[in-house]
Amino acid sequence: MTNCQCERNAVIDVFLESLIKYYLMEPLLIKPTEDTPLINIDPDTGEMNFSGNSLPENARLFYEPVINWLDKNNNHPHKQTHFVFNVKVISSSSTKIFFDILNKIDVLHESGRSEVM
Predict the structure, then answer these.
(1) pLDDT tens string 13-59
(2) Do 36 and 30 contact (CB within 8 A), yes or no?
(3) Which residues of 19-39 are buried (b: 16+ CB within 10 A; e: fewer)?
(4) Nearest to 77 by CA among 44, 99, 101, 49
(5) Which residues pair with 82 in a beta bridge?
(6) What gap in Å lies between CA 108 and CA 21, rounded to an integer?
(7) What global pTM score does this model have?
């Protein structure tokens, strides 16, 4: 195998790995605490579950993985998104973040790429 072929194979391997990571979204699971909710987002089933209390010290930082996950997933969502919101106590900073999350879900629904329930 020539040096050029080896380089080409390495580029193809990197490209394929990127495609796999892009198209095969990983589930997002954040375990609950007394002050933070369970967050379980499963791309294979379209389930998005938020339950518990939402009183994190820094809501923007706590929910950053969710926002990032949604930004990436909105390009290739499950055909149905089942959103479960069972938050008992919520801080004002969490309310702002949930508004952002709901806007992203609304964009997904309005685009017709996923039926949101």
Answers:
(1) 666 655 555 556 789 999 999 999 999 999 888 899 999 999 999 99
(2) yes
(3) eeeeeebeebebeeeeebbeb
(4) 44
(5) 47
(6) 21
(7) 0.75
